[in-house]
# Entry
Amino acid sequence: MKFGYFDDKQREYVITDPKTPYPWINYLGNEDFFSLISNTAGGYTFYKDAKFRRLTRYRYNNVPTDAGGRYFYIKDGDTAWSPGWKPMKTQLDKYECRHGMNYTSIEGVKDGVSAKALFFVPLKTWAEVQKLTLTNNSNEVKKLKIFSFTEWALWNAAADMENFQRNFSTGEVEIEDSVLYHKTEYKERRNHYAYYSVNAPIQGFDTDRETFFGLYNGFHEPQVVEAGKPGMSIAHGWSPIASHYFEVELKPGEAKDYVFVLGYVENKDEEKWESKNIINKTKAKETIAKFNTVEKVDTALAELRMYWDNLLSIYRVDSGEEKLDRMVNIWNQYQCMITFCFSRSASYFESGIGRGMGFRDSNQDLIGFVHQIPERARERIIDIASTQFPDGGCYHQYQPLTKKGNNDIGGGFNDDPMWLILGTTSYIKETGDFSILDEMVPFDNDMSIARTLFDHLSVSFDHVINNLGPHGLPLIGRADWNDCLNLNCFSNDPNESYQTTENQSKGSKAESLMIAGLFVVYGNDFIKLCKRVGNKAEAKRCQKHVDEMVAAVKKHGWDGEWFLRAYDYFGNKIGSNENEEGKIFIESNGWCSMAGIGKEEGLIEKALDSVKERLDCEHGIVLNNPAFTKYYIEYGEISSYPPGYKENAGIFCHNNPWIMIGETVIGRGDEAWEYFKKICPSYLEDVSELHRTEPYVYSQMIAGKDAFKPGEAKNSWLTGTASWNFYTITQYILGIQPDYDGLKIEPCIPKDWKGFNVTRKFRGATYKIKVINENAVCKGVSKVIIDGKEHSSNILPIFADGNTHTVEIVM
Ligand code: BGC
Ligand code: NOJ
# Structure
């Protein structure tokens, strides 16, 4: 069953039933100021950091779900309704929500009145702009009463939900004309406030939540709306809100627009006050003035649309597969931008207070984003590398506001360093900007011990070889990519965090075959980079270690039919046929295949056949099999999950592409494509009821074959799944790969594909690539024709001439 449809021309997903199987959300803003918005206008707003600068309040895991947002209440006679159906939940005559690229519009129609609310964060603006259009399509004059509503959060989202003994006494507001200001704590250490304005005179307002709703009422029964009269309340402590009240008269056929601005201001210390205890409103007024007419708002929206036109013109496929094209050309790239902005901080599954930017996560996010805005990718790489330790280890996370490593979680995840090589080389391959390697980058944010970024990559490499276990394989530390394989944790205390506890690590023999494969892939990448920059000595030194790792994997990492997953603390095998549960895992088989380890001996083919046989199912590839049915103290969190969920045999969509790429290594395009389709959201639109999460973005997990409800997805939006699937489809299946000296073309597609077209902007030229597969093969380029002339290799040269070049690739 579907709850809407794709409108590819507008680049929108159109939701036609407000009761989606879960709130289906969108993100507004893509630089400093952000909002989450659901299809019923729930969600919240923050500046840069969802934890430290939460502007509006939201209640996770509430009853009913999705509580808090920016709401409009419309009172027409005795009927009160909301354009997004919620919170009033009055039956609407029509409902439509359009989620587009960083904007959302929600329209409700009731008794001849249409209310259409458009929400977006204009480029370079610290505010969410809302345009409310009211249209009278009836034959009578309509007298409407409009109440806006949003609830302020007291800045620190964690304290906001915790420290009530203080919070209930601190709230402060100011009201001037049609602007409601929120200034809690501005007097003391804060130099910021928020505001909510409307570009029309108001006949009233409320800023105190209790007055607006009544103490015992929910979002769907505000007492002022019921009474048809604002409370004129001025908040002192308790819970400050912002609600405008105004009356509108509409003749038949008449329409009126109102522009609301929900914004954030920072003032310098010496400019904080206008007069004693009266905040300096200059900056707020400047922003409000920028959007005080419909024309200005429409222009800003047009600019935002153009911005996305541009971004999405860099990689475009025309494959003849509608569902594929809309993912590659629109939604997958969009999701990559979102994961780039938020890492794993704020979604409907990530509370915005738990996690900042992940070291490994943000590096991986780069591979789906770097072609869009390389300058921002560059800055990100430097930020991430700045949180590395001198020995190559890294803070696992950092806070975006301070850009400092997060001490609560610390380091010790031994895969982390290798991802920096992926992030950096991806950037250089896209841009050709080798100068990034010469940037002086601090360790642990301490500039006095800065080294070049190249040196950071070098210590990343060394961190693995300096931490090898008894089989010459990488020690796992707290965990590798699989945060839940906690082999040194041994936790029997439910109050301990699996992520930060190492009850037994001294003398540990716990080694990871996933890191081994990862090391070979990015070790080789680093060697290639060393050669490319003329550092032969470093290349030679590293080659020796990579070769040794390959040998160690072949000797100690092969189980007969597939690659082992790990050795535990005691040196026992994990992911072996000898084990009772968890005989085979996806990660090591993905990475060792991607690394090409044992390709000549047929190991990869064997491993991938085993994956197909034991891990593949109708909904995707599960992480391990058989699922763990009891708690293994020596394995940690992985065995804490019920079978079929999350890291315990869930379909962890992030790692499925590793198998797809593995398949392309041995040229099996049909298999790679089948796996791709199974988890690709646009292909799952028809089963939205089962899948539950948005059909336009990837979710982190789909419940696996052992689960209670196989096929049900969770954790949509903020997942490495976005970038890995984009990277895989565009670079390994369609096979258009940026490389240091050109654009390498190496498709690996299903045999029965006749071909496809890709337009790729790369290093200052546009490549119009036509791939022809009349020979019905999966892989292998036999002829390359550029601008009518045959070219001797499948690496297209860098033209950098601003022109368009036509390329024909015969497979
Ligand atoms: C989850 C992992 C996640 C980790 C982060 C675990 O509970 O299962 O997917 O990476 O928490 O701390
Ligand atoms: C989600 C985390 O964000 C990521 O870092 C981790 O690799 C996966 N979970 C797998 O555990």
Summary: The chain has a mean pLDDT of 97.
